[in-house]
Design brief:
Elements lengths: L3 H15 L4 E6 L5 E2 L2 H8 L4 E7 L2 E6 L4 E5 L4 E6 L10 E7 L4 E6 L5 E5 L20 H8 L6 H6 L9 H10 L13 H20 L39 E6 L2 E6 L5
Parallel strand pairs: 2-9
Antiparallel strand pairs: 1-7, 3-4, 4-5, 5-9, 6-8, 7-8, 10-11
Helix pairs in contact: 1-6, 5-6
The protein binds a DNA duplex through helix 5.
Length: 270
DNA sequence: AGGCGTACCTGAGGGC
DNA sequence: TGCCCTCAGGTACGCC
């Protein structure tokens, strides 16, 4: 489900809703989605306080007063939903419930149960393997070029590799490649300098515009308040096979690259 | 090292 | 109506 813009939107909503709140209790309804093991997970959280909520790649990071972090990956269909004190029924498919001392609660829900929630110690280097943040100042043309150098994998597969650049998923990979007029199957290392510059700029532009519109709700994505995003209304190619390319009017196609649906224009992406 | 296929899950939607 | 197939915003793992 969520890629960088959706995770950013969720994190901002959560920051508004839960920062400063103290955890009264935690209930694990599906043991395999948490770490450490459920009893310890629940016990350790009690009495701790949410100090901040942020994002790293596609991870939502809740920083606790104990300096530990609650690190959440939503995978395909995970949701983090805050409910008011009056709520009686948890968000459907809830796997973890975290209750706060003011009566509100945070539901970690996931139909497909791929999402994970991990309580990590202050010194845990979990983010070391996560790639560069594409919206940070570090994501320069030079840095992007060195990451791409000599890679033979299709540039679209490269964009999805979270160890290189963090936060891009299938929707924004397709959209950024279309915006930069680059064919998704091109070997990553084969891009000219102008193409690399276009792609870097397109990645940043597409992600920023999507954040401004609170993400893309193709199917079931909602933010922490349960609200849908708006970027699905302005997608150029994703999911639009058979429709007309917004730039050249030729027909958008869907092909498969690395087992993932890939939408692009054969005419203006080369 | 890196690239590829498969596994993990449930539900929605299309074809027949 | 219902059955069967494919597909889905993601990553981890094992194999070559």
């Amino acid at each position: 489900m969520p890629e960088l813009p959706e995770v950013e939107t969720i994190a901002r909503g959560l920051a508004n809703a839960v920062v400063g709140k103290t955890i009264d209790s935690a209930t694990v309804l599906l043991p395999r989605v948490v770490a450490p093991e459920p009893d310890r997970f629940a016990r350790e959280l009690v009495g701790d306080r949410i100090d901040a909520v942020g994002r790293r790649g596609k991870f939502v990071v809740l920083s606790l007063a104990s300096r530990r972090q609650l690190v959440v990956h939503l995978r395909m269909t995970g949701r983090l939903i805050v409910q008011g004190a009056g709520a009686t029924i948890p968000e459907p498919y809830s796997n973890v419930l975290i209750r706060f001392s003011d009566g509100t609660r945070l539901c970690f829900a996931d139909v497909r149960t791929f999402g994970r929630m991990r309580l990590v110690e202050p010194e845990d280097p979990w983010a070391a393997e996560v790639g560069i943040e594409p919206l940070s100042g570090d994501f320069s043309l030079e840095r992007f070029s060195s990451l791409l150098a000599s890679r033979t994998t299709p540039v679209k597969v490269f964009l999805l590799d979270q160890r290189r650049i963090a936060g891009i998923g299938n929707i924004y990979a397709c959209e950024a490649l279309w915006d930069a007029r680059i064919r998704p199957a091109r070997p990553a290392g084969s891009l000219s300098k102008p193409a690399r510059r276009r792609l870097r700029d397109s990645i940043r532009d597409v992600l920023r515009r999507a954040i401004d519109m609170r993400g893309t709700s193709v199917d079931d994505y909602v933010d922490a308040e349960g609200l849908r995003g708006g970027f699905q209304n302005v997608l150029s190619v994703y999911g639009r096979d058979g429709e007309s390319c917004p730039r050249c009017t030729r027909t958008i196609v869907r092909t498969v690259i690395a087992q993932r649906g890939t939408w692009w224009c054969r005419t203006c992406q080369s």
